[in-house]
Design a protein that fits this description.
22-stranded antiparallel barrel, transport, membrane, Ferric Hydroxamate Uptake Protein, Chain A, domain 1
Length: about 800
């Protein structure tokens, strides 16, 4: 929103004003759109003091408007009289800029996106980012209820959702737990890729924007304590921001610790049915009870240092460091049912000490040139290390065990360099072009010693990754009804790895045309239609490419492991998955910032990657082993509809209490060709997901109450169907239980400087089951192996005091 206020002033001579106007014309384009002031302007800091040239230029831009009016007046008045009258009646103009609301920014965007700003983040009081994201339409989380997990858009599993931080890919080893919500300015969720944000987003993109420009002085302190699994989890965070002349900074620090306990119960069964018979013989029926206790410590410090060097020129540095440690103690006991034998050792105990640290520095230099050209140069570097020390005892009893120890370190280094040029052209065009380069290096070392062959497998790995991208896009406002956004992106990824088993090189490149359009039936109306036609892709992960073995520790290497607990190895020959997508959406915006929307999408995927398990003779074991390896298995398609509504209760009835409602529902369908149905869907995709939520500002009280219900049904997926040597077949399934997560909070505002919040997560806790099934058949008969794991979920409570100092 731009607000103009005028104040009578005759202090400045006319020639000084027109000299400033002339300077502004030489430094700014002719296009009226480029004459609008930046959104970060504040009236209380805007003066015509010559010591601040950026502020003088902004006043000059406003005078340009007055000059146009004066030129029009000269057509009807003598020049001399016009000059005298203008000098006598000259008014001073002050301009205030405010960033558009989240809903308005979503409305203006040509590419479909959802914006979650500070207001919504602070309203819910979430302790981590996953709690924020799970309320969005079409977003699901991996793992058990109440614990967060991998974020998935449109129900699609690992790698289909692109995660960015300030528009750049998250560094290696990054997890959402490393970012406190206090560090975040806003979160942008793009349902379809754009040339600028990248095409590695088959399901969509989540772009986390860290704290940006300083809008006002800030000095906040939050102290909280949580309770889960009988363990306390205290935390403290501090945020400070200030603008000092042309220099501004934001600092955010977070420190937390806690204890978390986990229990897991797994039952594994294996039965054999001879050929020509219907009677199965139960060979294995065993249960594993696992208990673990984790003591965690996490700290992070981030911020932004920003200098305004002149009109349209800005330099910003964004440092970020984080450190975390975890001590985990686990015990596993295995028991066989009467009449069956154990497939592995019955007792296991492990003690793991792990640390992780990450240091990152990003720089951003923005400049404005003559003719409306703007440049944005970005550079960054990061370094991280994960180190783990695991000691195990495996045996028949705690007193009679085989001891082993594994030391693992992984060092990652990344360098990024990129730039963007933006030019506003006549006819409503905003043309942008960019270059991106990333260079990554990973050095991983694993040293083992122990009593079995698997304990002495020392795997050392070196990986070098280079990514380059070129892109071009044009945002074109045709008229008041139509807007187009077209782009073209070329991206190449080269991976070279060396490990004790050999060297691997993989290179892939993808060219992605992208087109978005918006149609507004009436100028200034509240309805609009969106359409997107895009090409995106999913690159194989480093873990999938490198042919490095990962051995299942549940069974020693002198025995055959169960098909539901396979060893794992990569596949250097993997190709990226390519997806052609179409999105159609209708949006209706309500008067008070609410909205109602419906979005339909379809993706056609070629070269789908799946993990396939087979029984193999391997060099790391003396017995045949079940080994899981990723493969390109064929084509697939997925489609769905996402419905969303956000509104106030007063929009439905008069004199209603101050209640804000939010609902969304997403329905999904998918099919993988070459795998028989009915469960041949995309990995980890449920049939639907839904959210119901409300926030109530209690009238007459400084109290706000809110609650949200997240629902995801259970599902079964047939993950593979393969025919191997001698006509044998192997079919695999995975399943997951339903999730029902109820969260609630109460916020008491003592005064604008002090707030107290009580929140509860996963209030209706229940056990969460997941399972896998492998059926293998050959001439002798069929073997059916199943494993069902049940985990206990718990309710967590949190009390937080927020102080504005």
């Amino acid at each position: 929103m731009i607000r103009y206020t005028t104040r009578r002033s005759t202090q400045r001579p006319m020639r000084w004003l027109f000299r400033s106007w002339a300077a502004s014309l030489s430094a700014a384009p002719d296009n009226p759109a480029t004459m609008m002031p930046p959104r970060h302007l504040r009236t209380d800091r805007l003066r015509t003091d010559h010591r601040h040239p950026d502020r003088v230029r902004l006043v000059a831009l406003a005078i340009d408007l007055l000059a146009a009016c004066a030129a029009q007046a000269q057509n009807v008045r003598p020049a001399a009289a016009s000059t005298a009258a203008s000098a006598a009646a000259l008014e001073r103009v002050e301009i205030t800029g405010e960033r558009a609301s989240d809903t308005e920014e979503r409305r203006r965007s040509t590419a479909a996106k959802i914006v979650i700003g500070r207001e919504e983040i602070e309203r819910q009081g979430d302790s981590n980012i996953t709690e924020i994201l799970k309320r969005l339409p079409g977003v699901t989380l991996g793992g058990r209820p109440g614990r967060g997990g991998e974020v998935r858009m449109r129900g699609m599993g690992s790698g289909y959702t692109q995660i960015l931080i300030n528009g750049e890919r998250a560094p290696a080893g990054f997890s959402f737990d490393q970012l406190s919500p206090d560090l975040i300015e806003r979160i942008e969720v793009l349902r379809a890729p754009t040339a600028e944000t990248g095409a590695r987003a088959v399901a969509g993109t989540i772009n986390i924007i860290l704290r940006e420009d300083v809008k006002k002085r800030l000095n906040n302190l939050k102290v909280a304590v949580g309770q889960e699994d009988q363990g306390w989890q205290p935390s403290v965070s501090w945020s400070r921001a200030e603008q000092i002349e042309s220099f501004g900074y934001t600092l955010n620090a977070n420190l937390s610790t806690g204890v978390r306990e986990t229990t897991r119960h797994t039952r594994t069964q294996r039965g054999f049915t001879p050929a020509g018979s219907e009677d199965a013989t139960l060979q294995v029926d065993q249960t594993d009870d696992n208990r673990s206790r984790e003591e965690r410590l996490h700290s992070s410090l981030g911020g932004r240092l920003q200098w305004r060097l002149g009109p349209g020129e800005l330099l910003a540095l964004q440092p970020f460091v984080t450190f975390s440690s975890a001590d985990t103690h686990g015990v596993s006991e295995r028991v066989a049912a009467p009449g069956t034998t154990l497939s592995a050792l019955p007792y296991s105990r492990s003690d793991t000490e792990a640390t992780f640290h990450l240091a990152r520095l990003n720089g951003n230099w923005q400049s404005r040139w003559s003719g409306g050209l703007r440049s944005d140069l970005r550079a960054g570097m990061s370094q991280s290390r994960w180190a783990g020390d695991t000691q195990r005892l495996d045996g028949n009893t705690a007193a009679s065990s085989l001891a082993s120890r594994t030391l693992t370190t992984a060092d990652d280094r990344w360098w990024t360099l990129g730039g963007k040029l933006t030019q506003t052209l006549a006819g409503g065009h905003a043309l942008a072009a960019g270059l991106e380069t990333d260079v990554g290096q990973r050095d991983q070392r694993s040293d083992g010693e122990g009593s079995t062959a698997s304990d002495n497998l020392d795997d050392n790995l070196q990986v070098r990754t280079f990514r380059g991208a070129l892109w071009l896009q044009d945002e074109w406002d045709l008229d008041a009804h139509w807007a187009l956004h077209g782009g073209l992106r070329w991206e190449s990824i080269t991976t070279r790895s060396e490990w004790d088993g050999g060297a691997v090189r993989n290179r892939s490149s993808v060219t992605s045309p992208l087109l978005h359009a918006v149609w507004r039936p009436s100028e200034g109306g509240r309805d609009q239609l969106r359409a997107s036609l895009t090409r995106s892709y999913r690159a194989p992960s480093l873990q999938n490419l490198v042919a490095r073995r990962s051995i299942s520790r549940s069974t020693p290497t002198d025995q055959t492991n169960e098909a539901t607990s396979p060893d794992r190895i990569g596949n250097p020959a993997l190709k990226p998955e390519l997806a052609t997508g179409i999105d159609l959406a209708f949006e209706h915006y309500l008067a008070d910032g609410g909205l109602i929307s419906a979005n339909v999408f379809h993706r056609r995927i070629s070269g789908l990657i799946r993990n396939v398990s087979t029984l193999q003779t391997v060099d790391w074991a003396t017995a045949p082993r079940w080994v899981s390896q990723p493969r390109n298995v064929g084509d697939a398609s997925t489609q769905g509809i996402e419905l969303e509504a956000k509104y106030a209760l007063k929009d439905l009835m008069q004199d209603a209490p101050a209640v804000d409602l939010r609902h969304n529902l997403a329905l999904f369908r998918s099919r993988v060709e070459g795998i028989p149905g009915p469960d041949n869907r995309i990995d980890q995709q449920p049939d639907w997901t839904a959210n119901l939520g409300a926030d109530w500002r209690v009238r007459g009280w400084p109290l706000t109450l809110g609650a949200g219900l997240n629902l995801t049904p259970g599902y079964t997926v047939q993950t593979s169907s393969a025919t191997i040597a001698n006509g044998a077949t192997i079919d695999q399934w995975s399943s997951q239980d339903a999730k029902r997560v109820l969260d609630a909070y109460a916020l008491w505002t003592f005064n604008p400087a002090m707030k107290l919040r009580l929140s509860g997560a996963n209030l209706v806790s229940r056990n969460f089951d997941s399972g896998s099934l492998v059926v293998s058949s050959d001439a002798s008969g069929s073997t059916r192996t199943s494993a069902v794991t049940s985990q206990r979920s718990t309710t967590s409570w949190r009390v937080e005091l927020e102080l504005k100092l």
